Amino acid sequence: MRKIMLLILATLLLAVPAFAQDTPPTIAEIVVASASGETPEFATLLAAVQAADPAVLEALSNPEAELTVFAPTDAAFAALGEDTLNAVLADQALLTDILLFHVVAGKVMSADVVAALAASVEGEAEGTLGAFSVPSLQGQYIDIAQTESGITVNGANLNLDMVDIEASNGVIHVIDAVILPESQTIADLVVAAASAEEGAEFTTLLAAVQAADPAVLETLSNPDAELTVFAPTDAAFAAVGADTLNAVLADQALLTNILLYHVVPGVVPSGDLGQLLAENMSMDGLMVNTALDGAQVKFMVAEDGSVKINDATIVVTDIDAGNGVIHVIDAVILPPSE
Fold this sequence. Notes:
Blueprint: H1 2-14, H2 27-35, H3 43-51, H4 54-61, E1 67-72, H5 74-78, H6 82-90, H7 92-100, E2 103-105, H8 110-119, E3 131-135, E4 141-146, E5 151-153, E6 156-157, E7 165-167, E8 170-175, H9 186-194, H10 203-211, H11 214-221, E9 227-232, H12 234-238, H13 242-250, H14 252-260, E10 263-265, H15 270-280, E11 286-289, E12 296-301, E13 307-309, E14 312-321, E15 324-329
Parallel strand pairs: 1-8, 9-15
Antiparallel strand pairs: 1-2, 3-4, 4-5, 5-6, 7-8, 9-10, 11-12, 12-13, 13-14, 14-15
C-alpha cells in the first residue's frame, strides 16, 4: 500500500497545471479562459455557473475565498445526455445544488488528498485501500477513495494529469463525471437498505416505521423536510428482546414516541455535531431537542473517543439523504417517560 501511495504522490506532484502562471487568476477566470480557448474544456461548466444562482459565480470570483473545485469536463456533462443536461440547466435550484456539491471549503491540494487517504488506512492490513469524506458547500459529503487504478471523487475519476490547477482563491482538480448529491429521502434509503439482496440493514426499523403512526413515514418521506435520524441497526432492535420488541410494535402510540425520539429537527452532520460537542460540552453532556415534543437526547464523548447518544454509540455517520442525514447507532434509545 505504501508503494502504491508513493507512486501516486510522485505522479500528482509531477503533474503540471494547465493554467500555471506567476499570478494565478480566480477559479471563475480560469473556467472562462478554458471555455473560450482554442481547445475549450469547461464550456458547459461555465454555462452551468452562469445559469445557477448568482451566489455560485460570486463565490468562484471572490478573491478572498479559499475553495477546492472538482471540475467536470465538457465530456462529463455530455455523458448525462442532452435531455437530462437541458433539464438540469433549466432548474436553477437543482443546478445550484449540483454545482455546490462539486466545491469544498479550503484549498485542498493533491498531496493533501494523498495524505488523507494514507491516514485513513493507518493500522489496517497491508493492501487496504483508503477512503475519506469531506463536506461540500451543498451540505452533503463527498466520498474520496483510493482504487486500484487511481482516485475517485464520489465515483468520478480524478484526472491525474489535471490536478492542482492553482487559482488566487483556491485550486481546481478535474474529474471525468458530474457528481450528484443524494436525492432519495430518508424513507427511500431505509427501504433500499432493508431490501438489499446482500447485507440488508434497517429491516426492523422499516417494520417499525410502517407500524407507527402514518405521520412518521410521511415525515421521513417529505422531500422538503430537514431531519437528522439516529437509526438503530437490526442487531440493536434484536437486543431489546423478542417479547419486548413485539409488544412495542403492537403499541402504535408507544412505538411512534420511540421513533420520534430518534429524530432531531434540522440537518446535523458529524462535523457540526463534533463542533457543538467541543464548544458546548459540560459534565451533563450536550442536550439536544428531538422531534418528540419536550424530549431531549444527550450527547457525550466516550473515553475511547466515540460519540454516544444516551446509551447508544454512533457507529456510522453521514449517510446523506435529500431531506437530511442518517447516523447509525448500536442501540435503541428510549424517551425518559418510557
